[in-house]
Design a protein that fits this description.
Blueprint (H helix, E strand, L loop, with lengths): L1 H10 L5 E4 L10 H16 L4 E4 L1 H10 L7
Parallel strand pairs: 1-2
């Protein structure tokens, strides 16, 4: 992903990048993998100029509270 970011920024000066987290799985054994990937995505955003985080986990939790499944 770092290579993609570098190529995009090189080809497009002033580009704004939006990186999204990965939503959790209903398979609990996979959630630690998702969390590790999300931590890396967040770290990339923190270390990349003009990069913004779309934390899809916040939205999935909100939807689940009102009984809407994003997996349907």
């Amino acid at each position: 992903m770092n290579n993609i970011i570098t190529k995009l920024k090189t080809a497009n000066s002033g580009i704004r990048l939006f990186l999204a987290t990965i939503i959790p799985s209903y398979a609990p054994q996979l959630n630690s993998d998702y969390q590790a990937l999300n931590d890396k995505i967040k770290e990339m955003v923190e270390n990349t100029e003009h990069a913004y985080l779309l934390d899809l986990n916040k939205y999935s939790e909100a939807l689940n509270k009102v009984g809407i499944s994003i997996f349907e």
